[in-house]
Amino acid sequence: MVALFQSQENIVGEVVIEPIHGKKVEHNGVKIELLGQIELYFDRGNFYDFTSLVRELDIPGELYERKTYPFEFSTVEMPYESYNGVNVRLRYILKVTISRNFVSNIVECQDFVVRNYTPPPSINNSIKMEVGIEDCLHIEFEYSKSKYHLKDVIIGKIYFLLVRIKLKNMELEIRRRESTGSGPNTYVETETLAKFELMDGAAVRGESIPIRLFLSPYELTPTYRNINNKFSVKYYLNLVLVDEEDRRYFKQQEITMYRLLEAS
């Protein structure tokens, strides 16, 4: 279990330092930092701080007994969500440092999670597309909208206008594409998160197949576009047709995911 916050919230708490009984801790000051960091796995160990706040908790001195330091970071700007991906991690931490002379500093970190919520989009157009192989196959498909919240339902239809090849089955995939880095150091990872069978067997001309795919069972995140110039996460609906000779035909369409504030 970790603490959960959203942007502009106050982050308030206490730091408790308790020396081992009978021993004192000499120090050059105690501070707490709130850090927002991005770590790219091909550059592991290098953290890019996009948020960095600090509060001094104590001046240099000695600690003989348990001491409690209250702290507060007010209306903290946390524009990006916590994310743990294939090649990148975005995290927020509280980091307490007891500075000392001649010996190493004492450092303790505590992660917390940030989730940001979006109101429903004012414009949410449907998606209409055609896929075809000349004189063999002509399909029209339609999704009721192009932007979905994480617990939404994808509703649509597929129309067969021309069918001259023997189709074996058809499925709809949800794919996540994570791209990290830039230029020659760009890494792209595509994961198939869900496969949903739409049809098993041959289709005939004039047939219409409904789509109803619930998103809530899947571990989805919102769409992230160019986060701090370090990474992006995009989602796609991929329609896959397979004929009797196991040839596969694809049609891919990007959708936008967002996190809708759930009524409590």
TrEMBL record:
Keywords: Cytoplasm, Endosome, Golgi apparatus, Membrane, Protein transport, Transport. One of its GO terms (biological process) is intracellular protein transport. InterPro entries: Arrestin-like_C, Vps26-related. One of its GO terms (cellular component) is endosome membrane. It is a peripheral membrane protein. It holds the Pfam family Vps26. Gene3D superfamilies: 2.60.40.640. It is found in: Cytoplasm; Endosome membrane; Golgi apparatus, trans-Golgi network membrane; Prevacuolar compartment membrane. Plays a role in vesicular protein sorting. Component of the membrane-associated retromer complex which is essential in endosome-to-Golgi retrograde transport. The VPS29-VPS26-VPS35 subcomplex may be involved in recycling of specific cargos from endosome to the plasma membrane. PANTHER family: VACUOLAR PROTEIN SORTING 26 RELATED. Component of the retromer complex which consists of VPS29 (MAG1), VPS26 (VPS26A or VPS26B), VPS35 (VPS35A or VPS35B or VPS35C), VPS5/17 (SNX1 or SNX2A or SNX2B). Component of a retromer subcomplex consisting of VPS29 (MAG1), VPS26 (VPS26A or VPS26B), VPS35 (VPS35A or VPS35B or VPS35C). Belongs to the VPS26 family. This is Vacuolar protein sorting-associated protein 26A-like isoform X2. It comes from Durio zibethinus (Durian).
